[in-house]
Amino acid sequence: METTKSAPPTRGYSATKGQLQNRLRRVEGQVRGVQAMVEEDRYCIDVLTQISAIQAALDKVALGLLDDHVDHCMSEGRVEGREDEAKAEMMAAVGRLMRRG
Q1: CA dist., res. 65 & res. 12, Å (int)
Q2: For the whole model, what pTM was predicted?
Q3: Is the pLDDT of residue 2 over 60?
Q4: Residue (of 8, 6, 12) closest to 90 by Cα position
């Protein structure tokens, strides 16, 4: 019996997946840098400044994903007659992003 592997679904970010992964790797490096700063007992404000930079970088990733979601997934939802569901899902995601801290 032969099993065929289905292709992964196309996501809104599929076209820019490489760029997205590169950005996330940079953020990962920034987090490691903050870990090293704490290990080295660096000045609190310097650590907080780096954390702020990490949050800004993640916000940029999130906004890019939202943009891709609107362009791809929301359009797909509209075509499939799920526009209200897709809109509610996106607004819930935006709400979660805004509720940090």
Answers
A1: 7
A2: 0.77
A3: no
A4: 12
Query: How far is it, in rounded angstroms, from Cα 2 to Cα 36?
Result: 50
CA angle (65, 69, 70) in 5-degree steps: 120
Q: How far apart are CA 54 and CA 1, in angstroms?
A: 49
Q: Cα separation of 84 and 92, whole Å?
A: 12
Structure tokens at 50: 């780096």
The model's pLDDT over 41-86, given as tens digits with 9 standing for 90+, comes to: 999 999 999 999 999 999 999 998 888 888 887 777 777 888 888 8
Domains of the chain (ranges; CATH) run: 16-98 (1.20.58.1000)
Of 55, 76, 67, 75, the closest CA to residue 94 belongs to 67
- Whether 16 and 66 have beta carbons less than 8 Å apart is answered as no
Question: What pLDDT band is residue 23 in, cutting at 50, 70 and 90?
Answer: very high
CA 24 – CA 17 distance, rounded (Å): 10
